[in-house]
Amino acid sequence: MTLNDLQQTKDAELAARKRIVLRCCLAASCSSSGSKGVKERLEKAVSEAGLQGEVEVRGVGCMKLCCEGPLVAADPANTLYVKVTPDNAAAIIAALRGGKCTLPQADPGSPFFALQEAIVLANCGVIDPERIEAYIAADGYLALHEVLAEMAPKEVVDAIVKSGLRGRGGAGFPTGLKWGTVAKSPGAKKYIICNADEGDPGAFMDRSVLESDPHLVLEGMAIAAYAVGADQGFIYVRAEYPLAISRLQNAIRQAKRVGLLGSGIFESPFNFNVDIRIGAGAFVCGEETALMASVEGKRGTPRPRPPFPAERGLWDCPTLINNVETFANVAPILRRGADWFAGIGTEKSKGTKVFALAGKIRNTGLIEVPMGTPLRRIVEQMGGGAPAGGAIKAVQTGGPSGGCIPAPHLDTPVDYESLTKLGSIMGSGGMIVMDETTRMVDVARFFMEFCMDESCGKCIPCRAGTVQMHQLLEKILARRATARDLAKLEELCDMVRNTSLCGLGQTAPNPVLSTLRFFRNEYEELLQPELHAAPPLTAKA
Amino acid sequence: MTTVLAPPKPQAAVRFASLLAGDKRYKILEAHIKKFQHRQDALIEVLHKAQELFGYLEDDVLRYTAWQLKLPASRVYGVATFYHFFTLKPQGEHTCVVCLGTACYVKGANKILAAVEGRTHIRPGETTPDNKLSLLTARCIGACGIAPAVVYDGTVTPRQTAETTLAQINQWVAP
Q1: Would you give the DSSP letter of residue A350?
Q2: Secondary structure string (H, E, C) spanning B97-117
Q3: Domains in chain A, ordered, with CATH?
Q4: What is the ipTM for the molecules in this complex?
Q5: Which of the two ends of chain B, N or C, has the fewest CB atoms closer than 10 A to its terminal CB?
Q6: CB contact under 8 A, B103 and A201
Q7: Residue A239: which of B41, B48, B103 has the nearest Cβ?
């Protein structure tokens, strides 16, 4: 593969493009609502109408408005049909010929779409994720070529530092700094790992990116490998995402076939191979040291850091671990420049963030907004507020490691620092909206049960602490607890947070602490008066 | 990396040879292990394949995997029991997985689960006595936009209620 070949592929792809494109969402959500049948019937209707020369029916990745699926979009008219059934196919084709159409439609100019800014999701729902040519036609792999032909590894790291990109997996560690550390670590063998173990319940951004634009992630990984001097990469993806796995396998096969992965990429001395590792359902494997143990085929238990993976990671070699969305930002940054990226977002949080909007909200689905967008704009304007006129009570971010942001704080801008200040975290991007019917103590119990089940059992504060906290929450919910129990719970939160080995335990108390901070009355309403002298501490109620 | 100190006992080889001869699935598993060049770090991949072939991980499969990868049986058992995805018990004819992710939960997945439990008298992780249905729960299947979701025999079904779930299950379970 040379730059010339890349250009030729792009030209051929653009030349073959038909006048009208019907994009049919084939991502997991729409698939489960029957979008495959819709696509088949559309193809049949096109050939019956004799329009094969003019109309292309294209299967694409996530078109974002998941609650209204299956979705079909007609270009260039920019019409978006919602809740399409196979029987609607004929009507959609008739509408292409200028007929009147009464099918339900969504407005592509509505705030849900208009307020988005697509960097990571630019190709999502637009290109066919199963064809590398479609990605190349959207300027794919150009950044990799530029990096290999014109930049030294150091310059690539500098560009990422300059862009201000921070890890999208949760903690927000500066990506450039991480790359620089791995690049400087001595060692002949280095590894790249893409963390696609999206374990947070309520998050599906990484799944959507992998299903909709797998080559974007592969290109980002290849650039990272060149920058730090690695030649082997792993993508650790959840077994719960079979479609993402098959699209990744397909993408890797295609990239190898045309020489964009493997040996001597773009006729340079740079080699890079990617293998997929399939997770087996353990939330703790999202933690980087646990993830590495799992890649090595062991029980996914974390180990103390330092040494950090950047120094001693996979098989004791320097290892770079980034999240799917972080890698997906790399190619656009190098293609359009670090300054362009640094111009988006806030002072300390650059670029955009993808969120999975779900829960008690009218428009559920995938959104990408610039950092610093107020939460209110996301849930009220884009999300359309609570369904059936209810009022939003809180927004949960960061999954079991995050917290609940109450309605009075909705004007908070979404960036790493502001969310941390409120006792929550950015997390990987799950955003669950809760309305007045949601009981916050129950939410805290739900997350604590999750952490209790998912605790790997290696360190005692997390293994025993989460069980005790869960019991106390159960007791409060059963109206059997007193103020002493609540005090005990707070004490335990503090202990587990400060003494656990890894992020799972350290953040497990967050949902309790944040609901206690903003909804303490809900806990207190459930407490019973202290009737007797305090029982000895060993007695169980 | 841990390895078995002693070479496999001859009985083991004979024993696994008879397994291989008696069951074609072991042959497929063996081919899969060869594809990974008997690498010990491929353990999780091999267990995935084994579960796909056998439906669950029975003791013989675990022992066979340990023998093929030259790993102690304890290590294979340890990994198989650590990850939720692997099951050491046989599944029923049909499976019903209720997603209990946050989005599904706030939209009433616990009511769906309670309805199924009440109808079948089994708890998550169990199978009905007639071996017709296994009830499972998931931590999140990433279908939050169409919550609450239930997976029937591997098919994700959107926007479920207690009624729709019971209607589906009643087709499988004797009244």
Answers
A1: B
A2: EEECCHHHHHCCHHHHHHHHH
A3: 15-107 (3.40.30.10), 139-342 (3.40.50.11540), 352-438 (3.10.20.600), 441-526 (1.20.1440.230)
A4: 0.88
A5: C
A6: yes
A7: B48
| Structure confidence by residue, pLDDT tens digits, A424-482 | 998 889 999 999 989 999 999 999 999 999 999 999 999 999 999 999 999 999 999 99
Interchain contact A237–B (C-beta under 8 A): no
Q: CA A266, CA A264: separation in Å to the nearest integer?
A: 6
Across the interface, whether the CB atoms of B83 and A66 are under 8 A apart is answered no
CB–CB of A199 and B139 under 8 A? Answer: yes
Looking at residues B56-76, what average pLDDT do you find?
94
Decide which of 3.40.30.10, 3.30.479.10, 3.20.20.20, 3.40.50.720 is the CATH code for B94-170. Answer: 3.40.30.10
Partners of residue B84 in chain A, C-beta under 8 Å: 280-282
**In this structure, are residues A204 and A198 in contact, taking their beta carbons and an 8 Å threshold?**
yes
The segments of chain A whose pLDDT lies below 70 read 532-541
Pairwise CB contact (< 8 Å): B140 & A201: yes
Q: Report whether B174 contacts B130 (CB < 8 A).
A: yes
Domain ranges of chain B: 10-82, 94-170
Instruction: Enumerate chain B positions whose Cβ falls within 8 A of a Cβ in A.
Output: 40-45, 47-48, 75, 78-79, 82-86, 100-103, 105-107, 138-147, 149, 155-158
Contact criterion met (CB < 8 Å) for B139 and A364:
no
